[in-house]
Amino acid sequence: ERCPAGADSWCSWQRAKASQTLEMYTHKPAMPLLVFNAVQKIYEDLTREELLSRCLGGFTQNANESLNSVVWSIAPKAISSGKAVVDIATNVAVITYNSGFSSLLDVVSTLELKISPELHNYAMEIDQHRVRAANRSSSINRKSTRKDLTALRKETDELNSNVEGQLYGAGIAE
């Protein structure tokens, strides 16, 4: 419905419709099958209860580590990148953002490339650094939140004490 109709359309389905060959038409997958197979487990893991429960408290995403930031660090906007480069960068970003750098080893393996011990060790080191940084950030946020809540409770208690002091003080009802 959003694609221009006709034989000259950029949309292959619309071209097949215009040439009356829809019965033979097969839609090209949005993601290459090799990449899909490599990241399918990641998407299944995203729905696990224990993973989702970790996100309930908030503070789950640092702006510097957002998915868009990861995509554009791989394929910077300042460098003219075509759609294919941005698509690849997006696929790599999704993999690393969701499951870490070591998950790229599955892609390398799927492409039947050799994984050297150095590459394996590098991937593990990058992921360990990421986990340590996330733990530090998480604990700092939690500590800050606890301090803020404690200060808010103290302020509320003081306000209530002032109001209660006026309402329930000795001699007020007399």
Number of helices: 7
Estimate the mean pLDDT confidence. 81
Helices and strands, in N-to-C order?
HHHHHHH
What is the end-to-end distance?
78 Å
Mind summarizing the main beta sheet?
none
**Shape from CA axes?**
extended
Identify low-pLDDT runs: 168-174
Please count the beta strands (DSSP E, at least 2 residues each).
0
How does the helix and strand content classify structurally?
A: mainly alpha
The rounded Rg comes to 27 Å
Strand content: under 5%
Total domains: 3
Query: Looking at the chains present, what oligomeric state does this protein adopt?
Result: single chain
> How much helical structure, as a percent, in the residues?
55-70%
Describe this structure in words.
By secondary structure, the protein is mostly helical. The chain has 3 domains: 1-50, no CATH class; 64-99, no CATH class; 115-162, no CATH class. 63% of the residues lie in helices and 0% in strands. The protein is built from 7 helices and no strands. The radius of gyration is 27 Å and the shape is extended.
Summarize this structure briefly.
With 174 residues, this protein is mainly alpha-helical. It has 7 helices and no strands.
Q: What topology does this entry show?
A:
Layout: H1 12-18, H2 33-45, H3 49-53, H4 67-74, H5 83-99, H6 104-110, H7 117-168
Helix pairs in contact: 2-6, 4-5
